[in-house]
């Protein structure tokens, strides 16, 4: 595993364009290190960006709602994995209800 990733590598991991990553950095106060004028991302930055993507794309939060939830998660120390598992459990429960109904 690498220590530092470029913005294009992070974009490939997340499946989004670099301008989206820069926007999320600004909105969610995610601060990657800089080497010269280039951003370099560590695993904690990637984890935070994955959380943002999950909130916006998977859980369908608005930007303002995602900001509030992001702060709550950071404050309480919840993890992306825990959130994802809860989301998947809820989705499965909905499918079961539909199938039984």
Automatic annotation (TrEMBL):
UniProt-listed InterPro entries: DNA-bd_dom_put_sf, MerR-type_HTH_dom, MerR_fam
Domain HTH merR-type: 4-55
Keywords: DNA-binding
Keyword DNA-binding: yes
Pfam short name (any one): MerR_1
Coiled-coil parts of chain: none
Domain of life (superkingdom): Bacteria
Tagged with keyword DNA-binding: yes
Example of a GO MF term: DNA binding
Record's protein name: HTH merR-type domain-containing protein
Organism whose genome encodes this protein: candidate division WOR-3 bacterium JGI_Cruoil_03_44_89
